[in-house]
Amino acid sequence: MSSSTPTESSAQPAAATTKDFKHRIHPDWCPGCGDFSVLAAIQTALGELNVPAHKVAVVSGIGCSSNLPGYINCYGMHTLHGRALPVATGLKLGNHEMTVIVTGGDGDGYGIGSAHFLHTARRNANLTYIVMDNQIYGLTTGQTSPTSVKGMKTKSTPFGNVENPIMPVPLAIVAGATYVARGYSAKQKHLVEMIKGAILHKGFALVDVFSPCVTFNKDNTYLWFNKRVKMLDELQHDPGDFHAAMERGYQWGDVIPIGLFWKREDLPALEDCEPVLADGGPLAHRTARISAEQAEALRKELM
Q1: DSSP letters along 175-239, please?
Q2: Domain that holds residue 57
Q3: Distance of CA 150 to CAs 46, 72, 166, 222, Å?
Q4: Is residue 115 part of a domain?
C-alpha cells in the first residue's frame, strides 16, 4: 500500500525524531512552492510528538500537493482524485493505533472530493486532514479552483471568475469537524503547532494551509498574504465559541485570520462508535475468523 515505506531503522518500536521522517526522495515542486514548508512542518510535528515512523501513514489524492506521501519516510498511499478521505477512514478503522494524516489540495479536497470531505467530518473520523490551499489548480497549469475568489482571471476564466468561493473553515465546522485550524506556509513554526494539535486531537481535524502557487497564481502571492494574515491569538479569539469561529472563518479582506478557529472534545470519534473495535485491539492484528480456503475464494472473487 505504500508509496514510501519506513527504513529498517525507523521501523523499530522506538520514538522517532524529525530526522527519521526525512526521505531519500526529494520533492520536485516548483522552487518557492509553499508545499515545501508544509512537508517540513509535518515532519517536524511528528518528530516533536515522538511518533514512531512505522505507526504513521500519509494518504493523498491527486495534485501537486498530493505527491507528498512520496517525500516523507513513513507508510503512504497515493489514491484517486478526491478519494483520499474514504481510503484513510478505512485504514484508520482497520488499525486505529496508526496516526493517519491525509494531504491534498483545494481542488482535490473541496472540488471532486467535497462530498467525502463533508461526510468524513460528520462522522468525526479520527484523521488529520491537511489541505494545501493555493486558490488554483496547479498540476493542470492554472485553472480556477473551488477556493478561487470571484473575479479572478485564470486560464479557465480569462474574463474573471463568476462563482463565489468555498469557505473551508466554516464549511468544516458546520459539517461536524471537531478541530478546525488554518495555517500559512510562510509561518512554519505556527503551522507546526496547528498540525501537532490536529494530530493529538481525537476526531476529525482540518488544517487548511495557505500554500502559494508561485507559478500559476499571481494574485494570492506571499507578498499578498504577508500583508493580511493575522494570528487568531492576537485577535483574542475563543476556539470554543461557535459563532465567533464561523464569523472569523468567513473573514477575507484586509485581515485574514490564521490559527485555531474551532475545537470541541465532547463528541466521540468514529472508531469509538464502532462496537467491534471496543475489544480485541486493532482489526489488523486480529486472527481472521475464516478458513484459508474461504479467504482464497474471497480473494479470487474480488480480484
Answers
A1: HT-SEEEEEETT-HHHHHHHHHHHHHSSS-EEEEEE---TTT-SSS-HHHHHTTEEEGGGGT--T
A2: 18-302
A3: 37, 35, 10, 20
A4: yes
What is the spatial distance between Cα 188 and Cα 258, in angstroms, rounded to a whole number? 12
Q: What is the pLDDT of residues 75-132, one digit of tens each?
A: 999 999 999 999 999 999 999 999 999 999 999 999 999 999 999 999 999 999 999 9
Asked whether residue 7 is assigned to any structural domain, the reply reads no
CB 215 within 8 A of CB 138: yes
d(CA 147, CA 163): 10
pLDDT tens for 214-269 read 999 999 999 999 999 999 999 999 999 999 999 999 999 999 999 999 999 999 99
Looking at the chain, the number of H-run helices and the number of E-run strands are: 10, 8
* CATH code (residue 112): 3.40.50.970
C-alpha cell at 281: 485491539
